[in-house]
């Protein structure tokens, strides 16, 4: 009986690997021939400040949707090519950083310990000192950065994640509603951005407590190679709302339906509050604050964001002003995004719905998928567990 059990166990393992190989082949075939977005992205609609109260503009009726062609991505950032920055002046940062080293196996040579003021926004001088230290000391093999803190999240009018990636952009401070420098990472398709482009996409491992940050990290680890499921599809929810200024991404939403090779079902809905959501992998909406977060059943590795002016103000507490991206994290999402200064409603300053989903299902990390989806990220801060990769191959 013991021998039979061992044979059956090995047979089941072989079958499981074979199924994943077959799925991966189908996924590759579905993406073959899909070129990178070589054309300029469509111009944004006339921008409007996002302080406009909900209902002040007519609701956005989603137009008939169609898929865009997304670039074929290769490779992904791993623990061996991710740098971790810990702020020794911040007990949260020290505790979260050490836990991340343990859970993700970050090499000690990829870890930098710095001393940075613990406040929402760094001055330009404070940032330049941090940036120079990272550029000097971080090994050349490091292609992306994890920042183990929830503050600072901004450098004057820029987000800290974008400033560390491709430098501080002072012109934004003169007119935050203007266009910012396009991100070269938006159309990049490989896994060595520091080597090829001279930039490191970064993400903050941010939460409102050390305990919740550890839960965030655990969700990211649990996400790896967890999809597609052989039984139930993951769900990608895209919500249009009555807030016209904040619903400009509705015209970019993908068509509803099942993406069969990846086991993802796309749902387009119209609602100003989240209904009960099951097996949520992706949620996007446009509101100053999003009711119904407690009704969401999140999958490990889930991403979620809302288009509003100050979602990147990570020190905003629940119920005070516009909702922070950290509310998504606290409710169980694994990554989010928000802007730190008034961006107006240029869709290019927020995650592109289709590019975010189409990047993520190719097996890259959530760090890479989110960065691939934002054309003008200078004002946007990326938060979450950077290495989460639910569609990464398990073999």
Structural class: alpha/beta
Fraction in helix: 25-40%
Largest sheet: 5 strands, mixed
Major sheet: arrangement of strands: 9-10-8-11-12
In one word, what is the shape?
A: globular
What's the total number of strands? 14
- Distance N terminus to C terminus? 29 Å
Strand fraction: 15-25%
Q: Give the helix tally.
A: 10
Helix/strand order, N-terminal first: HEHEEHEEEHHHEHEEEEEHEHHE
Please tell me how large the radius of gyration is. 20 Å
Mean pLDDT: 88
Oligomer: single chain
Extract low-pLDDT stretches: 1-19, 21-26, 28-46, 51-61
What would you say this structure looks like, in words?
There is one protein chain. The chain has 395 residues and is an alpha/beta fold. The chain has a domain at 227-378. It is built from 10 helices and 14 strands. Strands 9-10-8-11-12 form a 5-stranded mixed beta sheet. Strands 2-1-4-7 form a 4-stranded parallel beta sheet, with helices on both faces. A 3-stranded mixed beta sheet has the order 3-5-6. α9 (353-360) packs antiparallel against α10. The longest helix has 30 residues, at 2-31. The protein starts with a helix and ends in an 11-residue tail after the last strand. Mean pLDDT is 88; it is low at 1-19, 21-26, 28-46 and 51-61.
Structure at a glance:
With 395 residues, the chain is an alpha/beta fold. Helix content is 28%, strand content 18%.
